Amino acid sequence: MIFTGVIFSALVMLLLSDSAQCKRVDCKSDCCSFVEGFPVRLKELRSAYREIQRFYESNDDLEPLLNENVQQSINSPHGCHVMNEILRFYLDTILPTAVQKNHLHSTTPIDSIGNIFQDLKRDILKCKNYFSCQNPFEFANIKNSFEKMKEKGVYKAMGELDMLFKYIEQYLAAKRVKH
């Protein structure tokens, strides 16, 4: 199962990379442009996260917060609601707490991630019809798990940002115009 996920992720990255030879998509809507342009923002997210990743992963010794159920929910017909709830959770709880408890020398990477998440949340809500979004996602389980982790929860959530990036990437890649 993990091996298949790794292969799928590698394939998606190849398809979304600068070196992929795809026809340029002529988008006729802002939502199409948002989805087609997201790989650039994803690179920015990953670059900012690389600056702080080692710190958060080294302080993370807990069970996963973002598990396969989250990934399946993101890839479901109600994925935009899932994305909205997760982004709200990171914007309202995780990133502010990480900045507050930051033992790093700079909050710039966290601020960069927050700014991109803010834009992503806005665009996903604006494009609900484009994503054919259906029934809301129950986010309470993730929030309850986070709260049980107490002060270590922020390390868990920040340590799993790369996983969240992958989920976002897969969700948006599935919405790309077929070439």
UniProtKB/TrEMBL annotation:
Subcellular location(s) of the protein = Secreted
- Major site of localization recorded for this protein: secreted
GO molecular function per UniProt: cytokine activity
Keyword annotations: Cytokine, Disulfide bond, Secreted, Signal
Q: Quote the InterPro entries the UniProt record gives.
A: 4_helix_cytokine-like_core, IL-10, IL-10/19/20/24/26
Taxonomy, superkingdom: Eukaryota
Picking any one GO biological process from the record gives: immune response
Q: Quick one: signal sequence residues? A: 1-22
Its cellular-component GO annotations read: extracellular space
* The UniProt record lists the keyword Disulfide bond: yes
Q: Which residue pairs form cystines in this protein?
A: C32-C127, C80-C133
A Pfam family: IL10
Family classification = Belongs to the IL-10 family.
Please describe what this protein does: Immune regulatory cytokine.
Record-linked PANTHER family:
INTERLEUKIN-10 (PTHR48482:SF5), INTERLEUKIN-19-RELATED (PTHR48482)
Q: How does it assemble?
A: Homodimer. Interacts with IL10RA and IL10RB.
Annotated protein name in UniProt: Interleukin family protein
